[in-house]
From TrEMBL:
Transmembrane segments: 21-39, 45-62, 95-118, 124-152, 164-182, 188-206, 264-284, 290-314, 335-368, 380-403, 415-434, 440-458
Keyword Transmembrane helix: yes
Keywords for this protein: Membrane, Transmembrane, Transmembrane helix
Species classification: Bacteria, Bacillati, Bacillota, Bacilli, Bacillales
Name of this protein: Uncharacterized protein
Source organism (scientific name): Paenibacillus rhizoplanae
């Protein structure tokens, strides 16, 4: 423990030195733990947002824990000290775990206090809080332990991010389901779901702990192939006299996306999340609320472009390939539009698939239980929020992620900030669904605001970003 203490101290020093991220963490706690309970008149939505936001914020930490050291060529220096590889891995796990649990706990306490001051009574009873905190500790233990192990066996941040996402998203979704059931005040259902969730988390923890225990010191030094994605500038012969620069870059970016198998699998999982949540709430509460599916879809799926565009733009910065790309005859505008088109297409496909799965789930539930559920579809306002609003929100997040990935010191910081800013797009949807007197009118106004904002951003980006400015940021 004494030999590995410098790892913890280094992690804490790096964490506290980034004042901007500390400010964003505090701001997100204030929004999720104070503003949301005031508007929603309860802590249920705040707890779900806190669970998802904690997983989103800790995921880049886990990906960067070991794979970042390996990619930046500092892992060998760290392991050449008296620190054992497994000790370093456990200290990284402890830091990420305490961050995740502390962030969630502070947000929960703020939500409970705000709900008590606003309503004059406790939001949840003691046994509910106890179940929530026990399951939260197991959930973040499983996510952090599996994430650190996945990072230690990944060659670069891209691969680590894919593997951590594939683990963190399902476990976080299971935690959100558990929170929803615990909030129903049905003790038997809450205990059953909590026990099932706890067994799943303990199984993941024991399996990952056994793998870590079997690791030897030479395992950390084994060379892991870092597969750099194929970029447009690597095929110089085809760039001499291109027919369509936009089509060529779009085709190559699509080929790169098809190589990210684990990331695509996590995207498919996200498409099933809304229908699974609606069906589970229907089973435990007996009520069908499509607004909850709309809210979950708008919360999760438009965030997809932030990861894709950060990899596409930030990857040029990480792998030192941006200078070669800018030295080709390619113009900046078609390259930028082609890189942006892939995330937009992926988001559109995911929104369509998620909506169809939700309607199919409702239809099946109505056929099984016609006395409880009737076949219904989305309203006009819900369709506006699901498709045009979600697409324009994803485009806005994509612009933010692309700019921050270039301007900040590392693309990882851009993902951090964008992950937090992306939640700001959810609050107008919350207000439209639960507070607006006319949901359709509110949806149309928000759609117009997003459209105007995106047009302004696109014009400023295309007019003001020059080749020398991009070179200076790479």
């Amino acid at each position: 423990m004494n030999r590995s203490y410098p790892v913890v101290r280094m992690q804490c020093a790096e964490f506290t030195s980034d004042k901007g991220m500390l400010f964003f963490y505090g701001l997100s706690i204030g929004i999720t733990g104070i503003i949301v309970p005031i508007f929603m008149h309860g802590v249920e939505v705040s707890l779900s947002l806190a669970a998802l936001l904690t997983a989103i914020l800790v995921r880049p930490m886990l990906s960067d824990s070991i794979a970042g050291e390996r990619e930046h060529r500092t892992l060998e220096t760290l392991l050449s000290s008296p620190i054992h590889g497994k000790s370093m891995l456990w200290r990284k796990f402890e830091f990420c775990f305490f961050f995740a649990l502390g962030y969630f706990t502070i947000t929960v306490l703020c939500s409970a206090l705000t709900s008590f001051l606003a309503g004059g009574e406790a939001a949840l009873i003691p046994w509910q809080w106890m179940c929530i905190m026990i399951v939260a500790a197991l959930n973040y233990s499983a996510i952090c332990m599996g994430g650190v192990y996945a990072s230690s066996t990944s060659g670069d941040l891209r691969a680590a991010n894919q593997r951590v996402s594939l683990l963190a998203y399902p476990l976080s979704f299971l935690f959100v389901i558990c929170l929803s059931v615990i909030g129903t005040v049905d003790l038997l259902s809450a205990l059953i779901i909590s026990c099932i969730s706890a067994l799943i988390y303990l199984w993941v923890i024991s399996r990952i702990a056994a793998k870590i225990w079997r690791m030897k010191q030479p395992d950390f030094f084994q060379p892991i192939t870092i597969q750099k994605p194929e970029r447009a500038h690597q095929q110089r012969l085809s760039l001499a006299l291109p027919r369509s620069q936009f089509g060529m870059v779009l085709r190559l970016e699509w080929k790169v996306l098809m190589t990210l198998k684990r990331m695509l699998l996590s995207f498919v999982f996200l498409c099933f999340s809304p229908v699974a949540m609606v069906c589970l709430l229907l089973y435990f509460t007996g009520t069908l609320d499509l607004n909850y599916a709309v809210l979950l879809t708008v919360l999760m799926i438009p965030r997809v472009p932030t990861n894709l565009i950060a990899y596409s733009v930030g990857g040029e910065k990480v792998y030192k390939t941006g200078e070669a790309l800018l030295s080709t005859p390619l113009q900046i505008r078609p390259v930028f539009l082609a890189k942006c088109m892939i995330p937009v297409l992926v988001t559109a496909v995911m929104l369509t698939l998620s909506s169809l799965l939700t309607l199919a789930g409702i239809t099946i539930a109505a056929l099984i239980r016609p006395d409880l559920v009737s076949i219904q579809g989305y309203t006009a306002a819900q369709l506006i929020l699901l498709f045009p609003v979600s697409l324009l929100s994803s485009i806005a997040m994509m612009f933010i992620a692309a700019i921050l990935s270039l301007r900040l010191r590392t693309p990882r910081q851009g993902l951090y900030v964008t992950s937090l800013l992306s939640f700001l797009f959810v609050f107008p949807v919350l207000n439209i669904i639960y507070l607006a007197p006319n949901m359709l009118m509110g949806s149309m106004i928000y759609l117009a605001v997003l459209g105007i904002g995106n047009l302004i951003c696109l014009q400023r980006i295309s007019d003001n970003i020059t080749r020398p400015q991009l070179m200076s940021r790479l």
